[in-house]
Amino acid sequence: MSAQKIPPLTYKVIAECSVSKARAGIMSLRHSDVETPVFMPVGTTGTLKGILPDQLIDLDCKILLSNTYHLGLRPGIDILEKAGGLHKFMAWPRALLTDSGGFQMVSLLKLAEIDENGVNFRSPFDNSECMLTPEHSIQIQNVIGADIIMQLDDVVKTTTTGPRVEEAMHRTIRWVDRCSEAHSRDEEQSLFPIVQGGLDPELRKQCVAGLLERKVRGYAVGGLSGGESKDDFWRTVNICTDLLPKDKPRYLMGVGFAADLVVCVALGIDMFDCVFPTRTARFGCALVISGQLNLKQKKYSLDMRAIDEECECSTCKTYTRSYLHHIVTVEPVACSLLTVHNISFQLRLMRQMRSAIEKNEFPKFVQEFMTKHFGNDPIPKWIKEAMAAVNIQLLEDKDLMNENDLTLRN
Predict the structure, then answer these.
(1) Number of domains in the chain
(2) Which candidate, 355, 341, 377, places its Cα nearest to that of 259?
(3) Whether residue 183 sits in one domain with residue 203
(4) CA within 20 to 30 Å of 305's CA: 41, 135, 164, 320, which one?
(5) How many whole angstroms separate alpha carbon 383 and alpha carbon 371?
């Protein structure tokens, strides 16, 4: 009797918040076990700008994201195939996820024509044409060899309304089947479908219902974080997590601001990615719990503190704000130093949320985080409403003081 094959992705929920939809889990992939909730740094073309794979390992990063469209153009599938896949090509021993190229329908819209067959792109490098069909997207991803691969979806700008949104949603479901049919490495790579439907709750529900009929190991929520109101953003996420299965990972694409991460973990999301922490490093900005430090500002010229005295990254252990102020956006090494810190900040935030969920202290964590994050500014109404929807009541400092006074009197 042959041994039962281990699937390339298994997911186990190990703790759930007793109040909200937040949960902590372990996603076991071929190249690493990934604890969720997790933030995936973005290495679009197989490299994160300003940081080496060894440094990412030192930060305990378990999974990265790369992009199918860009890797298909450069270096191309012939070179990737000869290298033995992206893991070997970029010397990254841990897990990878590849985006299918669907997002480029929005980001490179002026270079793309979309129809039922796929997306016809003109290369931004040499103006040559490239037809990205669901089948070709999967072919590229099979060569890349990522642990998790994404279907090609029909993506429209978030604020689009009218029949184009419904057309894109139904086409996305049809393209899932074409992707599944073309997928030749299902025993090694897990294909995630993507929930589309714009900001229309009914279209999102229809899309989830259609995707639930397919046999998959996880789901992504796409088409958000593209200019819609925060109120529409959280309500759409909430609808999707209400309907997606609890025993499979849920990936929210393109979200990386700290407050958004906390809110969406409370709403039941497990996986995130965004270029924000690496991109903002290149502009001389460091992430801290209160937001960002723009180290180009003169006030940091004599500041001998670390970026974050609670951070254990090599940048914070070694360099001062003053030193960084004098080299950001001037010396290339500054990008590397800030990128190390910013990735460290994102990963530490996820660890803190996992720990709070495991201790069943997540609502307390959310309250403390929001108080520190917004400081003297009021917590935005959309965040309060989002958290109230999952039974987490956020209070301002003055409200907390009044509540403490009442507790003492009682």
Answers:
(1) 2
(2) 377
(3) yes
(4) 41
(5) 12
Whether residue 177 contacts residue 149, with contact meaning beta carbons closer than 8 Å, is answered with: no
Domain assignment of residue 45, yes or no: yes
Q: Tell me, what amino acid is at 264?
A: C
Catalytic residues: 99, 273
**Looking at the structure, do residues 290 and 363 belong to the same domain, yes or no?**
yes
What is the C-alpha to C-alpha distance for residues 96 and 322, in angstroms, rounded to an integer?
36
Same domain, 172 and 314: no
How distant, in Å, are the alpha carbons of 99, 128, 310 from that of 66? Answer: 6, 22, 30
**What is the average pLDDT value for the chain, to the nearest integer?**
93
Inside any domain, residue 81: yes
In a domain, 347, yes or no: yes
- C-alpha–C-alpha distance, residues 293 and 280, integer Å: 10
Q: 217 is in which domain, residue-wise?
A: 10-275
Whether residue 357 is predicted with pLDDT greater than 60 in this model: the reply is yes
For residue 121, what are its two tokens? 């792109």
Q: Respond yes or no on whether the N-terminal peptide bond of residue 363 is cis (omega within 30° of 0).
A: no
Please give the torsion angle defined by the CA atoms of residues 280, 286, 288 and 291, in that order, rounded to the nearest 10 degrees.
Answer: -50
Tokens of 125: 């490098």
Q: Give the domain-ending residue among 222, 247, 275.
A: 275
CA distance 306 to 317: 7
Report pLDDT digits (tens) over 236-261: 999 999 999 999 999 999 999 999 99
219 and 334 housed in the same domain: no
In a domain, 1, yes or no: no
pLDDT at 309 over 60: yes
Q: Which residues are known binding-site members for substrate?
A: 99-103, 153, 196, 223
Residue 345's pLDDT is what?
98
Q: For residue 405, with 0-12 CB atoms within 10 Å meaning exposed, 13-18 middle and 19 or more buried, which class applies?
A: exposed
Provide the residue type at 281 as one letter: A
Phi, psi of 272 (to 5 degrees): -140, 155
DSSP code for 42: B
Report the CATH number at residue 98: 3.20.20.105
Location of structure tokens 């076991």: 28
Residue with tokens 């996992």: 354
Judge if 226 and 329 occupy the same domain. no
Does residue 163 sit in the same domain as residue 236? Answer: yes
DSSP H stretches of helix in 287-327: 314-318, 321-327
Task: Decide if 50 contacts 81 (C-beta within 8 A).
Answer: no
